[in-house]
Design a protein that fits this description.
Layout: H1 10-53, E1 57-63, H2 70-77, H3 80-86, E2 90-96, H4 100-108, E3 114-117, H5 119-126, E4 132-136, E5 139-140, E6 145-150, E7 166-169, H6 174-186, E8 194-197, H7 203-209, E9 214-218, H8 221-227, E10 231-236, E11 247-251, H9 252-257, H10 259-275, H11 281-291, H12 295-302, E12 306-307, H13 313-328
Parallel strand pairs: 1-2, 1-3, 7-8, 7-9
Antiparallel strand pairs: 3-11, 4-11, 5-12, 6-9, 6-10
Amino acid sequence: MKNKRNIDFSPFFTKMRYICTMNKKKILSLFMVVSVFCTLFLGCTKQKRIAQEEPQRTVRIAIQPSAAFMPLYIARYAGFIDEALAQKNASVIWQDFESGPPIQDSLIADLSDLGVIGDVPSVLTLAAPVPMKLVGIPASGSNAYAMLARTDNAKLNTYKDLKGACVATIVGSTGHNFTKKLLEKAGVSFDEISFIGISATDAELHLQIGNVDAVVIWEPNITRFIDKGLAKIVAQGDETDLRGTNGFIVREEFLRDNADIVSTILQQYDCAVQAFDSLDEALLKKVASELKITVEQMQRIAKKYQFSVEITQADIDSLQDTANFLVSIGTLSQSPHIADYVDTSCFSRN
């Protein structure tokens, strides 16, 4: 019987244990790499999915070719507002109107979300049954309003000459309120003048044919008529307490759900105000063309306004004065308390 050989397997097992240990480390390392990759991948996928699932929002901004809203045209054509809102997955529908009253109607009918309008349509919109908020003041400017007479009218040179004159303006407008203030300052009643209601687009025609002694109108019409040699200034807004306050009006329902969008619009409007003096010629020409004036005229007119966003007590008082005027002529049955409609939460320079 042959002797059995004793084979020592310990070196083999030692080597196998070493290999297994190394492979285990490699496997663990690989597992960790895969885990990190999966975490990053799934995280990015989740973020992408959230971005895709976030609902696209739209804001309808109503604008009109008034010199008071030049910064909004700048913010529009420079892309300030569209680009800023795109980061919030929101887009803008720009709605062009000829004047304030149609914007007032559009806001009330839920055809617009936010609009820029003068003091009279601002007050009337706030007083409407549909809840609205005043979220900012785009501009104010007393001398953006004036009483004009033909250049060859030697009898009418100041508001003190109004007795017996024939005055035309838009009934129920800021021009009407300004006329009332001038008459009160001159100590003349409405019964002592001839008062004719016209449309803003007919003001130039009435001056041309000379069937009225004066028209009361606002920019950019004032500058256009004077530069044509057609008219002269009889009185300006700062000869009374007229402030000429315009408003950013937004539907309360839209504001409640989209305060960040409204805030972005106001911030970008303010950026346009700050950028006004450094704009390139092409952009200035585009804005000027909307107002049907030259760039040089636009720059002159801009000096008549205090462009802002912040709402001051003076602005509230001015709109309250407008509300009281509308009650005095029977447009409103009672004066709304303007301060109740103010919301300053969407804009601050602090």
